[in-house]
Amino acid sequence: MAPVRLLVIGGYLSYRALFEWLRPGLFFSVMLVTPVLQMLFFAQLGRYAEVADPSYFVIGNAVVGCTVACVYGPILAMAEERATGTLPALLASPANRIIVFVGRLIPFALNGLVVSGYTLLVGSLVLDADIAAGEVAPLALTLLVAAAACSGLGLCLGAVGLLVRDVPFLANLVALLMLLVSGANVALDRLPVGLRVLGEALPLSRGIEAARRIADGEPLSAVSGLLLGEIVVGLVYFVASVGVFAWAETTARTRATLELA
Description:
There is one protein chain. By secondary structure, the chain is mostly helical. Helix content is 75%, strand content 0%. The protein has one domain (2-255). It has 13 helices and no strands. Helix 3 (34-49) runs antiparallel to helix 4, helix 6 runs parallel beside helix 9 and helix 6 (72-83) packs antiparallel against helix 10. It is globular, with a radius of gyration of 19 Å.
């Protein structure tokens, strides 16, 4: 039971710590308002340019909306561990690093699912996106897989943030990059080869394609390969986050930079 307790309580405390320095009003406005405004902007832009149906942008931006929670959340949580002086206690504990990281991933993945689901709901109501009742459950599973994969990337970047000071810049750069190359608003086949490869190497591109195909009426079994690919990408970043954290821990101790904010 000790690993389960560490998983649940550690993840809960890491997520709850966000509210020690971020006002709940600001937190919820960022989580619920920003993705919706982003979706509405691109949907109206696409309608004006006559490049795609509003449903295309609703689904794409609903999936990519999870980056607000899944990229910014883990990065800032790891940064605050160092800034508030709790990081040395974490490193000194005998706790399994993988369990610690999984515990930090779960709350942000669930948060990302809520943000994506909310954005999709608002888009369906405001822009009249056609989503059948039978597609809700497969879409929810797709959003959860995409959010979990994105959280793996966020944890990896959070570990990198232990070695750099400008963590907000890193978070903004990655979030904007994913908005560009994930296929949320610009189809991957229209991007230059380099950006297309980058988009496929990052989370969400497969999740976005799977969500759109489900919304078009395809069964979950038809997109299982895309979801499996998204899971693999998320696992790669999660394993990398554990490795980067171990390397950052060793480097920070050597250079005496562990507690620098």
